[in-house]
Amino acid sequence: MSRLLGKGQGEYKRVNNFMSYEEMKIKLEQERHAKSQSEIEIDTSIAGGYDSDIDKVRYYQLDCIKTIIEKFKVGKQKMLIHMATGLGKTRTTVALVKALISHGLVKKVLFVVDRRALAKQALNDGFSLISGDYKSAWIKTYNYKQNKHKDIHIVVIDTLELIFDAIPSNYYDLIIVDECHRSISVSRNVIFDHFVCPRLGLTATPKTAIKADTEVTDEDVAIRDTYKMFGCESGKPDYEFDLIKGIDEGFLAPYDVLEIKTYLMQEAEEEGILLDYVLDPDTRKRIDLPKEIRLKLEQLDRKYISEERCHRIAEEIHKNTQREVRRYFYLGLVKYIAYF
Fold first, then answer.
1. What is the number of other CB atoms lying within 10 angstroms of the CB of residue 2?
2. Residue 50 pLDDT more than 60?
């Protein structure tokens, strides 16, 4: 069972339970399927097939799925997909999971996201595509046991922090981390170290960490580095189809940058803005500050939601975009801007 132990990865983990006889039989059967030379069928109606909206075959999705399957079969424990936003990471992932489960390579999959909105999207717009064959569930702190036997678990990373140590280390056969450049931090790495199974990261913007502080350990830097965290120390993902390639090949629309600065933004850049309260990014509840503080634009962008600024940006986008994209920005911008 070298593949299950992380062959070639130099990594062995402590487990918190022993597998039952039936569980060991399943793992051995998965090992047998991994060594099989039989062709694995991929559902191109989900990903990798002809897209009538753009009159093109999304060949890169098929290439991505085949690449990951081959690396999974030879026992690679950490993998990374770099695919630009708009190229269909979710559908690619769903088709990958379907292929792996249907050919007996995996039985249980954990899909990790960093926000509730993404969990809902993964459940309703993603894994619902294969719900007739494989059942999925959004796991919360109170419903893990009742959904234990579902094929695919979707979980928000904050929830996983609370329940991971109650889940057997070898329960999942594959963990997929969506937006992995945001989901994993030094404090959260213990969650993923708990599980003994391959780990696949999905991102449109992989992050390289640089050691700027002598007090930060090399291990912590590696955790913050998307490439190193997912076994791509060379800086090359296991599969890559970036923004430039997507535009060049006609899968994404080209764009021009329009820079607009409101009076509020200029003031925030130059002098900072006095604030006596901020809004919680998740609940949008008002949080009163102990004293009035002055924050510059960079701090506002990274830590807080400035409701006034969100509305101003939404107004400018409305003025400078075509009608069909306005509704998207109105619905989404005020809620999600300034998260990063």
1. 9
2. yes
pLDDT at residue 306 above 90?
Answer: no
Domain CATH number, residue 67 = 3.40.50.300
Measure the CA dihedral 218/220/221/222, to 10°. 90
- 125 in any annotated domain: yes
66 in the same domain as 133: yes
> 244 with 252: CB under 8 angstroms?
no
The verdict on 197 and 229 lying in the same domain is: yes
Residues 66/259, Cβ–Cβ less than 8 Å: no
% of the chain beyond a pLDDT of 70: 73
Q: Are residues 90 and 220 in the same domain?
A: yes
Q: In sequence order, what are the residues at sequence separation of 6 or more whose Cβ sits closer than 8 angstroms to the Cβ of residue 57?
A: 48, 49, 50, 51
Single out the residue of 88, 72, 59, 80 nearest to residue 30, CA to CA: 72
Q: Where are the alpha helices (DSSP H) in 103-254?
A: 116-121, 157-163, 180-183, 189-194, 218-224, 226-229, 243-248
- Contact (Cβ atoms closer than 8 angstroms) between residue 202 and residue 175: no
Q: Residue 96's domain spans which residues?
A: 2-248
Picking from 7-16, 120-129, 182-191, which range would have the lowest pLDDT averaged per residue? 7-16
Together in a domain, 270 and 155: no
Average pLDDT, the chain: 80
| pLDDT for residue 150 is more than 70 | yes
Q: Are residues 210 and 76 in the same domain?
A: yes
Mean pLDDT for the stretch of residues 305-310: 64
Domain count, the chain: 2
Mapped onto helix, strand or coil, the DSSP state of residue 317 is helix
pLDDT of residue 324 exceeding 90, the answer is no
Q: Can you tell me whether residue 187 is helix, strand or coil?
A: coil
Distance CA 110, CA 200 (A): 10
Helix axes 263-270, 307-320, angle to 10 degrees: 130
End-to-end C-alpha distance for the chain, whole angstroms = 42
